[in-house]
């Protein structure tokens, strides 16, 4: 089937964009402190929490990378199985959600500082910036694909426009406005995906016709990938989720423990519905559009669906991408202001100044994210880099705070440094020549260092102490 642009879809994108902007402006008026901007005043109820968790985690990582790209490039089973790491990660977070909330910190770096000292905070801020600007970069690309489908502008020009939109919205209202728009987007995308699935199956000619148009590997259990290659795609997802600052901030922003538990449970339910449908739709797209960029698979389907269904779906996908970009831009800026600038460059910074500086920094980080789109060849490749930098550099040390109280300051710092250096070294020198994602090397190295250094540095007489410097 020949791919064609559908200009009428832009009106759905514009309409929902106006709704998001209006909602953001309304909620931005409720902001009076930096806590309102970053943690929504710690007032999120279970429904909004469930929606913002789902929208933040799925985002462009799933609808252009993740399940979408895996299904298009390798087949249905690798994509469906990629939901399992997310479920394991959410289950783990569910068990420690009360501890996360009652830690009461704005950033992951603040949590790490309590356990490992101030240098852990500085290192964490650096890792978060390196990871989150990568994640934001493919939100720009995802929105660029949508504008390409709906207006005919080139993906490159669409990416520029998408960057401007996401940066602007991130500056408007922080989490106070992002969370409600996340919730609305989450429910809309669930509806859009459910409505699109049977129609896409019909347009594709039924399951037998769809599979007959694909290589045999696309219906095999591994999709032609080795076990190591599969783990190279699955482990970054798991280890980012286990330590994702955006998720921790949303847990902290919940109104109470009950809201946290119910919101997390709803997140699991939403994920079980959304990610398999994304996988199946991208698989169908591979049959219909065999020569497009993998990141465009799900978005391209909107061009052949009935206008109302395609419009609802593309509007929801736009919202997911935009809100995810907003969230990660906000989170990265927060880390810089709270974990570095406010502690080491301007110690007398006021709450109002924190708010102003965070808003000023968002466009700077947005520009860096845009420049990163020029380095990585595909959305999936930048996604794996960004997830691994964070998952190896932060997650083992962070989880140890809650699950491994014996861990020492030296072990935490050594683990973080090892994860960061191993990831960057492998990404720049070996990932292309070996075809093995850096997570296979860096995450085990970070965990081993964490355990070994703890064994050699733990004070057996006095027991572990928390560092509060």
From TrEMBL:
GO terms for molecular function: transmembrane transporter activity. The keyword Transport applies. It is found in: Membrane. InterPro entries: Na/Glc_symporter_sf, Na/solute_symporter, Sodium:Solute_Symporter. Pfam families: SSF. GO terms for cellular component: plasma membrane. The chain crosses the membrane at residues 6-27, 39-58, 70-96, 116-140, 160-179, 186-208, 220-242, 262-284, 296-322, 356-378, 384-404, 411-429, 435-456. Keywords: Membrane, Transmembrane, Transmembrane helix, Transport. It is a multi-pass membrane protein. It comes from the Bacteria. PROSITE patterns: NA_SOLUT_SYMP_3. Its main location: membrane. Belongs to the sodium:solute symporter (SSF) (TC 2.A.21) family. This is Sodium:proline symporter. It comes from Salinicoccus sediminis.
């Amino acid at each position: 089937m020949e791919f064609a642009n559908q200009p009428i879809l832009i009106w759905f994108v514009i309409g929902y964009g106006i709704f998001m902007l209006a909602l953001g402006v309304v909620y931005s008026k409720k902001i009076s402190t930096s806590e309102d901007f970053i943690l929504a005043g710690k007032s999120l109820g279970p429904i909004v929490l469930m929606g913002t968790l789902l929208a933040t985690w799925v985002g462009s990582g799933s609808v252009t990378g993740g399940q979408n790209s895996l299904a298009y490039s390798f087949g249905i089973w690798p994509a469906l199985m990629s939901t399992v790491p997310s479920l394991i990660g959410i289950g783990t977070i569910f068990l420690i959600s009360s501890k996360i909330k009652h830690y009461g910190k704005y950033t992951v770096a603040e949590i790490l500082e309590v356990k490992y000292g101030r240098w852990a905070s500085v290192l964490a801020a650096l890792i978060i910036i390196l990871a989150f600007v990568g994640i934001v970069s493919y939100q720009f690309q995802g929105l660029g694909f949508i504008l390409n489908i709906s207006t005919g502008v080139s993906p490159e020009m669409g990416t520029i426009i998408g960057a401007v939109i996401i940066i602007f919205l991130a500056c408007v209202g922080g989490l106070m406005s992002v969370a409600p728009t996340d919730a609305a987007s989450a429910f809309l995308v669930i509806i859009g995906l459910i409505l699109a699935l049977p129609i896409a199956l019909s347009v594709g000619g039924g399951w037998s016709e769809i599979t007959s148009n694909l290589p045999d590997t696309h219906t095999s259990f591994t999709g032609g990938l080795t076990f190591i290659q599969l783990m190279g795609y699955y482990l970054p997802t798991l280890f980012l989720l286990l330590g994702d600052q955006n998720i921790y901030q949303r847990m902290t922003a919940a109104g109470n423990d009950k809201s946290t538990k119910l919101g997390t449970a709803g997140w699991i339910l939403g994920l079980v519905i959304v990610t398999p449908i994304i996988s199946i739709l991208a698989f169908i797209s591979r049959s219909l559009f065999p020569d497009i960029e993998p990141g465009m698979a799900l978005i391209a389907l909107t061009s052949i669906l009935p206008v109302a269904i395609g419009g609802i779906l593309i509007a929801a996908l736009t919202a997911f991408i935009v809100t995810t970009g907003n969230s990660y831009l906000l989170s990265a800026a927060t880390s810089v202001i709270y974990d570095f600038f406010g502690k080491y460059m301007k110690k007398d910074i006021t709450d109002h100044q924190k708010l102003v500086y965070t808003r000023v920094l968002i466009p700077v980080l947005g520009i860096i994210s845009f420049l990163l789109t020029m380095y990585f060849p595909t959305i999936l490749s930048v996604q794996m880099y960004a997830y691994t930098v964070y998952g190896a550099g932060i997650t083992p040390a962070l989880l140890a705070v809650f699950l491994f109280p014996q861990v020492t300051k030296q072990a935490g710092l050594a683990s973080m440094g090892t994860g960061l250096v191993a990831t960057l070294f492998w990404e720049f020198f070996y990932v292309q020549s070996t075809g093995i994602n850096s997570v296979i090397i860096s995450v085990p190295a970070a965990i081993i260092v964490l355990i070994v250094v703890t064994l050699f540095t733990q004070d057996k007489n006095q027991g572990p102490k928390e560092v509060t410097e």
